[in-house]
Amino acid sequence: MQNPHPLLVHFPIAFLVAFAVSALLLLVLPHPGLDRFARASLFVGTAAAALAVVSGFFAEQTVAPVRAAAETIGEHRLLAYGTLLVAAALTALAVIAPRHPAWAGRFRAAQGVGALALLGLVVMTAREGGELVHEFGVGTALTAPGGPVHDVGAPKRATPQATNDAPAPSGKDFR
What we know:
Blueprint: H1 5-8, H2 10-28, H3 32-62, H4 70-96, H5 104-134
């Protein structure tokens, strides 16, 4: 089966950018329909970001290693986790905000600041992901075993080894 990560990453990009733009518009143009659109985009974008992060974790385990891309992969992973964290925090804020109408102004300001941060994170994460594919060929047939630029000298991923000093489970351990 093909690696689904490249197929899934475009959904959080689209939905989270739509949220950020609409949340920033709400600061100058409050409209109930735009607010509902922003919330829906945030909820779907956060769920899509979670799927993209999980699929990225599995993709990292399965694609052919490219030594030159190791640092960029680490940066991409860290930015993706940050994007998901900010999106999840904004989602929690969006769920809590309607229950506290007296703090609506504070919530809207926090949402605006969070939208700016989220937009920056989405752009940087997408840029690093694009660099991995288009500059280094990570996850493509070019760098796969047998591909024209396969990195034969790249370190193989360490697989966990069973140790002999690990305790053996007994029947009492699993009730």
